[in-house]
Each structure stands twice: as C-alpha cells, then as structure tokens.
Amino acid sequence: MSRELNTSEPNMGEPPRLGFCCTFIPDPDPSHKTLKAAKDAAKLMNLGTVTMAHLERLGPAARFEKLEGVVRHNLAALERQIAWVSGRPPLERLLRMASSVLPGYTHPVAQPLYAQAPMRSLIETGLSRVGERARAGEVRLSMHPGPFCIIASRNPNAQANGIAELEYHAEVMAMLGYGAGWHPHGAHVNIHIGGREPGIEGFRESLSLISESARNLLTVENDESLFGLDAVLRLGDRVPVVLDLHHHWVESRGEYIEPDDPRIRAVIASWRGVRPVSHISVSRETLLPEHDPDALPDFPALSDQGHSWRDLAAHSDLMWNRAVNALVARHLAWSDFEIEAKGKNQASVPLAARIGRDLSRAAA
DNA sequence: CGGCGTCAAGTTTTC
DNA sequence: GAAAACTTGACGCCG
C-alpha cells in the first residue's frame, strides 16, 4: 500500500513525523533541587497568558506593559520550543503550537493594544524569526483553536467570535510565513464542526465567510459524538480531514480503523497532495490499571464493565498501550501524528524512539 | 506560601 | 441545573 501512497504530489514525499501538543514538560533533572526550580524550567519553555479581567483593571500604560511582557515571553518560549523540537530526530519534528501566543487578540480589551505600532512590530519581527527557525529546522507546525472557535452556529454572535478566532490563528500562521498557498509546509489550523445545528452544511456555507488564507490553512477533525469520520468526510472536497483515531474509537463504540480502509483513501484525498496529520490518544491508565498493554482496549467490553463514555474518552498521561502504538506505526505510512497525551513530550519521545527503532529495523 | 475562586468565548452530555 | 469535556494557567485574596 505504500506504493499507492507514494504520489508525485509535493508533500506526500515528506518523511513521517509525530509530536506533542502545546506544552513542554522538562525531564526530571537532579539540578532542579526544588519543585520551584522545576516549575521555573517549565515556565521558560512554555507560553503564558494574562486574563482580560486583569488587563482591564490596569491603567493604560501598565496595561500595555503587561501585555507586551507576556507577548515577549511567548515569542521567546515558542522559539525555544521550536529549537528543542528541531534538535530532535526527524521523526519528532512536528509541534502543535499553543493558541495563547497573543492572548486576547480578538478581545475588545486587548485589541487596541495589539493595534499599536510598537506591539505590531514586536510581533511581526518575532513571529517571522520563529517561522524561519521552524523551516530551517524542518519542524511541521499546526494550531488547534479551542472549542469556542466554531465557524457555524445558530447564534450569530458566537459565529462572529468564532470566525474572528479562526482569523487570528490564520494571522499568526501568516506572520510565521505560512500565509500563502494550500497548507504550506503542511501547516494547518484545525477545528471541529461544533454544534448539531447548522452542522456540516452550515460549516460548508461558512467557508465563504472566512479569508482565503484561513481557508487555505483550515482542517476539520472528527469528534467523539456528533460529527464522526463519515460526517466530516462530507467536507473532504473543500477541507482536509484530520482523523482522530481515539475519537473515532469512541464515536464508533470500538472500531480501530486500519490504513487499508477506504475511508483512509478519502482522508488522504481531502488533503490534496499535502501529507495528512492525524491525532492519537488512549484512555487513561488510571481508568484501566489492570489492562493488558499488548491488547487493544475493547470499547463494548469496557462499557459493559461500567466505564462511562466520557471516562473512556479522557486522555492518558503516557502512550501505555503497545497495541495502539503499533496501530500508529502502521498509519505513519500515510500520516503524521499529534500525540494527545497529558504527558506531552514525556509521552511522544518514548513513542517515537520505539517506532523509530522498528522503522530502521524494518529498513535493514 | 498554599488553597480557593475567578477569569473571553460554545455546545453537548452526564451526574 | 451544575460540572465536565475539548486548548490551560494566571491572578488576587484569604488564612
């Protein structure tokens, strides 16, 4: 099947990648004598934020300074994350960036601050530098706005806010250097459909309300309840589909989809020549302490044992299930992966090490 | 300094 | 009817 996937389209020839999402967790380090030292180390590597309520309580000058300080920190932290990822083996050169780079970008309290020239130039210079660094280090980048980012809603205000939020993510991508063309360098901004109404058809109609650069970066992900893989594939002619294998397992009440499934071909086609990205996670290890790590979790059986739908949907700390990891390794033939584990890099690095070892053994 | 409540935002499901 | 689930900390206040 790898022959069939080896298309002549530009990005399909890219090597496989997998990575963690948003937050870097430093290794336990003996030089961190105290909990505080470990926290400080994490702080350096991760993005921060500021609440709009706090900003609003400050006077004009302090308000600007506070936000500028957070933005400065975030640009530097993002650059450190990307530098770290680019220093990893090629298999690990993928990162989902946190949405909080520019906190409150679409909020009325912060908006006027972002409009000021010194802030603009700080951001443009910083993001352009970060983007260059990502491309030089061959790090594939994505963003995943929160659940508030819906582009089709029955509530016109919610829809307007959601579209503004999507445009914010697209602007960040543009300032990073991913502002033109179809998912340039595999970059993307991934969202869900959102509410039951207006659903898939409302989403399709809303595509005409967003900018071309946002449309060029947009992807849509199957969710665990309302809009499963078949539903989002109905948008595949316009929007690339991000396949979340764990959501699919929950939504289908236990199906593990394999690379030779016809629906995988439809997912690949939706990306139109760009190498797809998929998501993986697994139910919490604390929920299944006795579970055989070499057996795929069985949804109907676990459900019968009294585990609720919601508990099974929650994410584990680490990629503890070797059968699920083997499934990821098979899907890496056609897709990159974002590892949605609470342990972040502490989960993705060992997973990549095991998969990388298996890949090189298979090649030998 | 630790604990707790609050903080921009939407929608659904479950207790 | 409140809380939890998706991205998660930051901040002020109280003891």
TrEMBL record:
**Which is an annotated Pfam family here?**
UvdE
Write the protein's name: UV damage endonuclease UvsE
Q: Does the keyword Hydrolase apply?
A: yes
Q: Which UniProt keywords apply?
A: DNA damage, DNA excision, DNA repair, Endonuclease, Hydrolase, Nuclease
Q: Which SUPFAM superfamilies match?
A: Xylose isomerase-like (SSF51658)
Tell me the GO molecular function terms.
endonuclease activity
Which Gene3D superfamilies does the record match to this protein? Divalent-metal-dependent TIM barrel enzymes
Give the superkingdom in one word.
Bacteria
